[in-house]
Structure formats: structure tokens, C-alpha cells
Design a protein that fits this description.
Layout lengths: L16 E7 L5 E10 L4 E10 L6 E2 L6 E6 L5 E6 L6 E6 L8 E2 L8 E5 L5 E8 L1 H8 L10 H18 L11 E2 L2 E2 L4 E8 L12 E2 L11 E2 L5 E7 L11 E7 L5 E3 L6 E8 L5 E8 L9 E6 L6 E2 L8 E6 L5 E8 L2 E8 L5 E3 L6 E7 L5 E6 L6 E5 L7 E2 L5 H6 L6 E6 L5 E7 L10 E7 L12 H12 L3 E6 L8 H5 L5 H17 L4 E11 L1 H10 L7 E5 L5 H7 L4 H7 L7 H6 L13 E6 L8 H12 L4 E6 L6 H4 L2 H19 L2
Parallel strand pairs: 33-34, 33-35, 35-36, 36-37, 37-38
Antiparallel strand pairs: 1-2, 2-3, 3-4, 5-6, 6-7, 7-8, 9-10, 10-13, 11-12, 13-14, 15-16, 16-17, 17-18, 19-20, 20-21, 21-22, 23-24, 24-25, 25-26, 27-28, 28-29, 29-30, 31-32, 32-34
Helix pairs in contact: 6-7
Length: 677
Amino acid sequence: MSEKRPITVDDIYNIGHVEDPRISPDGAWIAYVKVTVDQFENTYKRNIWLAATDGGAPRQLTRGGKDSQPRWSPDGATLAFVSARDEKPQIYLLPTRVPGGEARVLTKAPNGATSPAWSPDGAHIAYLAPMREDERAKEDSDEDDPKPADSFEAKQHKERKAHDEEQYYDPRTMWRIPYRQGTSYVDERYAQIYVIAVDENLEGDDAKPRRLTDINADHDPPQWSTDGGTIYTSRTVDATLDEPWLHQHLYAIDVATGTHTQITTDATFTDYAPLPSPDGKWLAYVRTPLEHLAARNIRLTIIPVDGGEPRDLTLEFDRSVDDFKWAADSSALFFNAENWGDTEIYCVTLSDGYIEEAVAGRFNSEMLDVGVDGGIAYSASTAQNPGELYYKAADATEATQVSDVNGKFLSEVIVQEVHELRFKNPDGLELQGWYLEPVGYEAGKKYPLAFNIHGGPHAMWGPGTRSMWHEWQYHAAQGYAVFYSNPRGGEGYGEEFKLVLRKAWGSIAFTDLMAGVDAFLEKGIADENRMAVTGGSYGGYMTAWVVGHTDRFKSAVTQRGVYNLISFYGTTDVPFLIKSDFGVEPWEDIDFMWEQSPLAYAQHITTPLLIIHSDNDFRAPIPDAEQLFAFLRRMGKTVKMIRYPREGHELSRSGEPKHRVSRLTEMVNWFDEYCKP
């Protein structure tokens, strides 16, 4: 065996992961999405794979490179999935019991179709499709565009449609907040629920999709009742309200008549993601109190399908719930939740509300599914592996790794061990952090430090955080000791741990972060005179706050950060975060908002600062970065700004691969310039 090598920046192209595992109705198979990076095309490939729950090598089902959301038919003979292989995403059907079977397209939605859901009898699929109000009106009038006579006419039609689309938004009118999300402006197309027959032999109206909704609001993915007569969803209660996700409730839609019935009504909560129990008696869903929303726990809740009093199953558990699934006999729910650096899988029984760990081990689970026999499939990352599929049989004590997405890569590289470090802040509160020794570490020798700060602010990092796995290992491979921690305000330690950050984003976290750095320095691994600090989003806010309040760091890289809370409020797609976390709207106490902004302390910054931001970041928009750069430049400080075109807030996690490589290269070069003289 050849000697292993340190991880490089280009290993971004060699790392994959798993998404959306789905167990077949008989419990024998797991369909999942394998995600890889295509360096040549500068993009990501998503293909659907199939693995047996009792072992054996997985096999690839699709090769389109743009395939996702596999969903089993009730009889297990067909997989519905979403593919964007022909420009717009559409739903395809693939036979699973016919070797070499070809997928056929089911939908031809003009703006694409996603989120397929099979009816219990397997005869229909409900799905989501975005449509503008004028497009829905035309659809209702049955005025179909004439079919092109030839390829030339088809080309003309496509060009005319593209021109009309451009003209529709010129000029662009904004009437609700937010008016842009992700990397683009909201196009006034809202996700509507449709139902389409699966039988390809039907003709006329029987073959056409039928729309069940008609409101300028996005609907959550549809879920069928066990008798097939009802579809459950969630949406805003009032389509005219700003930030519609703050006012969501559950709805039941009669499939035959299209009648909508609101199920949840408590205006002090926002409710979403309904999932009916297999016995048809309950709806499980998640809800969050609106007061101080951003810092509150997401609760797993049940309610009778016909309405009634909600029952929170995880209120005393004191952790936020992410993905969840029913047990086959409806007696329990399985869910994952962040807890002390890990994202663990739990089970709660309905009869007594008892919660226990369902899968043992240290990992960060992302998506899960539960089979008819109680087996659990889940995607997860660990400190040793950035992402695989795992399966735990109902009678097994441990889970087994099913996929081998990263096996070849991991066999070739040095993976540094992640060590836990518990420490106390000045108030005596125990906090949690982790560190990596640099590759080639020699005891007694001190190394430059790369100190990382997480975002959120209500997020959590751990030893197996997938989004940071390569970055931390790369820093260590470049000769840096790596340290990161979870200061107060983050997930995984209870609701009060999060709420304490209210009205003090900077000062409270600063105290905890510096206590962690001091505790790590005591181990004698890092050189206190060669320390760099970096973070993204809220981590960018804190990076700027840190260097505005101490000169102990020799280099700093702030990324996709918030630096002026006043301008942030007016440009972000999550303005509710300000009232939620600071208790006021900016105009109610403008001086307080400025005092809480890192930009207010720019004159105190002496650390050389690199600002990294994306042009199309509408979560933490780029004007904040431009202001910070201009302030520091005018003050004669050492500062540089790099901005990435086409990218949004997710640059570091899912941006164009070449941009991710560039970002890490620029970061380490900036570290090196000041920490490796």
C-alpha cells in the first residue's frame, strides 16, 4: 500500500455524500441519492442508487446526474423520482423489478415539478409545481398553446416564451417581504399541489394533471391520508402577509372536491411538515413558538387528523427536532436532533411520551427513514467520514455502513483525529469544543492556529459536521492546529442556552469564544502569537466582532457576514431575526442596533482582514461587506475583499466547486501571509 498523503484543497472534487434514503415497502431495499462533484463541468452530480438492507454492494439506478427525491410506489415495483435532465425538473417513473428498465417522464409541468407522493392505491401521484396567478388562470381556461409544427416553430416558441418571461419582470414590482431568496428574486410563482394519474394508457382529461390549490402561497410537500381521500399540507394562513413562513398552519385538502380545511389554528405557533400516521389517526408535524422564534426549540407534535388539541412530544426533551418518521404500527415516531455536538436519532412512544436513543454512536445524521420491520436508514457524517448511508436493523445493536461513497478517497489520505475539549467560561458554565493537531504534529512544538466560529447564531458544530469536514482537515494538512467550539446561543444544549444570546449577539459569544481559545492554548499545541480567526454568516459577524475587540489574532477572514444590523434588516430575506433575537425593530432603538453591529467597532480593528462574500447572497447581502471594506480602507487598515459572482449564502457548502476551491485557497494564503512569516 502506498503512503497516505495530506488532504489538499482539490480534494473538494473527491468527496461525496448521501441524501434522502428511502426504504422500500417490504423493507428489503434502500433507494438513496449519491452526490458527487464533477470537476470538468464545475457542478454536482446526483444519481439514484439502490442497496439491499441485508447487505451486498449497492447498484446505480440512474445516470442522468440530475436525479433526486426517490419515492417508492406502494407495491415497491416502481420508483418515482425528480430529474432535471431536460432543463426543468420533472417527475419520472422507473420500474425496479425489470432489469435495465427505462424511466419514463410522468409530468410536463411548464415550470417544473417536485416532491412526488404516491396515493395509497398507487394510481396517482401528488406533487408540487410553481405557477404564477396568470398562469393558473390560463390553465383553468383550458387555452393550450398550439403545438409547434416543426423544429423551427418550436425554436421560435421557446424564444418568444423566454422574451415574454423577461418582459414580465421589467420593471420588477415588489409588494411583499422578502422579495428575493437564495440567489434570485421571488418570481411570483408559488408551489401549488397537483394530482396526476400514473396509468400511461389514459387519455383526455383523465390523463391531465389536476390542480388542487389556487393561492399565492407556497405549499409544503403533499402527504396522502391512508384512505386516499385527503391530502395534507401546510402553508401560510394569509397570502398577503410578509415572511409567510411565520404564519404557517396545517391544511387538509379533499382530493375529490378540492375543499381546504384548516387543521391547526394556534396563532402563537408556526406549523409545518404534516405526516399522517399509518393507522390514519394522527398527524405528526413540527411547530415553533413565534415569540423569540429563532432561538426556540422546534417541537415534534401530534394532533388528531380531524383536528383537536395538539400534543407536544418533545417539550421536555429540550432539543430541536429535524427529520422525523412514523413507526409502521403508529406507536412511535423516530426523529433526529442535535445534542452536544452530535445529531442523534431518537424514538418517542405515543403512549407515554418516553424518549430513548434509537441508534448508538457518534455521528451527525441528516435524513432518515424507517422501514416496515423497524429498520432505520439514515445519511450521516462522522469525524472519520464526510458522508455515507447507514442502516440499523430492528434487532441489531449497531448500525452498519451501507454505501462506500468516500472509501477510495479515505484510503489515500491522512485524516486527523478530532479531539474533544471541555472547558468553562468565566461564569463556570461548561462548554464544548474540538481540536485537530496539524498533520505531522510533533509534541513540544507549537503551531499556528486556525480558529473557526460557527454561524447561525443558533447553529451547532461537532466532530462530524459534514459542511466543515474537508475545511478543517485541509487547515490541519496545511500545518495549522484547528480549534472550534459551541458558544452560548447555539443548538444542541437546550432552549435557555440559545435564548441567553438575545440582545447580545457579540458580547456573550465573545466571552465564550475567548475562553475556548485560552483553554486550547493551555494544551501547548498552538502558538498564541500566530493565531488566525475565521467564520461565516453569524461566524462572520463574530469574526469582525472579535477583531474589533481584541488584537490577539494576527490574521482574520470574515465570510458572508452581517456587519451592520440596521442595513441587514432592510436587505436580508430573514428580517424577523432582528426582532426575534434583539427584541426591537431597528427604528425603535437605532442606537442599540448600531452598538450591536461589528461595523461600529471598525476603528479598533488592527488585525489584517480578508472579507469574502457572494454577489447574490440574499441572506446576508453584500452591502454589509461593502460597508466594512470601505470603512477599513478609508481608515488605512490592512483589508482585502473578494466577491464571488453567481454565488449565494451557501458558497462554502454548495457553491460552484471551483469557487469553493478558490475560497479555501484565498483563506489559507491570507492565514499564511501573517501567521507563517
